[in-house]
Model the fold of this input.
Amino acid sequence: MLREVALSVLVLLVVFAFAVGGLAAVWFPLETMISSDDGPDGDLVADSVIMMILGIALVAFAVGLAVAFPADRREKHRIAVTVIALVAAFGIGTAFIVVNFPGGLPDDVYELDRACDGTTYDDATPYAGPAPHPVTVQMPSETGQLLIETPGLPNGSVWPVADPDEPEAVQLIACGSLEGEQRSDELTCGPYSPTGLGSGISVPMVRATYRVRVYELRTHRQIRSVVVEGEDTECPKTTSEPPPDRMLSELTDDQWQTVLADLVNADLP
Done:
């Protein structure tokens, strides 16, 4: 009897390991491929497909093991243990994935840009309680990609609450989208020379108008939506290669105070 119990427990653990490992091998490469900032390249797709095939094979092996285990002797307790093992493996494995992805916070604040597309994070800190309420800011670049921005205080010092180090601290996320552009012959940046030689290339600066939506990170509940024209037309010292077709004006620290300060400093229930 003891031998039967030990064998049943061993099979349960093996089935669990293969099933959970298989589910993880399917999900993690798929999630990585989808969330890649640079888009899925050929090598990434190939590696992901191989991992997913391996994961499916592991899950199939776990199912086969669970089905074959009671085949030689069909005592009710062995069949019951096998069924429980299989259900537990798939249940716990699926729960692990559901809890951590997409609900699990990423390792870096820079990876919270998906929250602007509606991703919610069940383990994020709710927008509640006493101030301050840390916020991270994602604004569009000249290429349209969202990049993190760190507003400062109007006196030029760091605004720590708008530069959180850990995703666990973030309660709010401000997401910008480009609403309009106004070109001016008077605003030009450069010339930029990637090699440091020659005359370089001048790039026009446009006055950009943004829609800034502020969400609770945990629930994607919209708290504010404002349209504001970026007044910061200071040219960057360097640019990408090749240079963009234009530079976008940005919000000043004073403007960010108008958009965010009362939300960050609010004492909530």
The two ends are 58 Å apart (CA to CA).
